[in-house]
């Protein structure tokens, strides 16, 4: 990578003064970031080579990039309770769906890794039909664009045709062959083909499992949180951790959502739980609260038992940022939103030791 002669950067560090005109652009990675970048720059560059390790499922959203109408913006600002109603209408469909459609059916034949239950197979057919409709007449792109793992098994993307139609442009190539090396003037893939490049952008994701990075958090007896968590981060209700009194996590281990809707709701529940613990400390005349090891471990085991039965943990899914190196999922929540609300709305004081 260091040998490349031109500009190269991570997508999060896009240079403000970068001139794309007439360049040969190599985009390495086509997940959520690359998915948006590629069609946005395709008309500005001479050649766009998109290097994608894994095809992504996407669902059609015709208003995905549509500007919020002026009337809606006015109503959100001025009509009493309209914003609450709008939020409810946006989030309730996902909340009401729960997690049943993501559960692996032990009686379903999943030997081909294509689906985990009957409903999941039907969803796969729907999403595949959308991809085929957008790429009609391009069997080469269809073969490259249909994932070989269950629908919803990774972070699903949204498309109004922007991505799929972008792939059809004459100056765009979707490369699904592994990269062997980066050379001064381009990229060489595992088949020996050299594709020239003037600019390389690495849309290769983030350290999803490295919670609280780059901070160093030290608890009781000089325990390092990073060392305690390792590749298996856990927290009681995703909020509190043994050995770390008075530390409360929002969006902590096991609270990311790949189902349902609204991380904001989730964060509100976590904040409510944290405030209840703080209130307990103050009313008891204590100065610190720490989750008991037994309560934490029981919850962590329950979390693993539940998440292992859902599609994101299915063995057919590889190269997933949800999984740790051992193929286990510690980042996602297995709970429907309403169940997580029930878990966090009433504090169990016996789960905490006060000092």
TrEMBL record:
Supply the name of the protein: Unannotated protein
Xref: PANTHER family:
FAD_NAD(P)-BINDING DOMAIN-CONTAINING PROTEIN-RELATED, L-ORNITHINE N(5)-MONOOXYGENASE-RELATED
**Database matches in SUPFAM superfamilies:** FAD/NAD(P)-binding domain
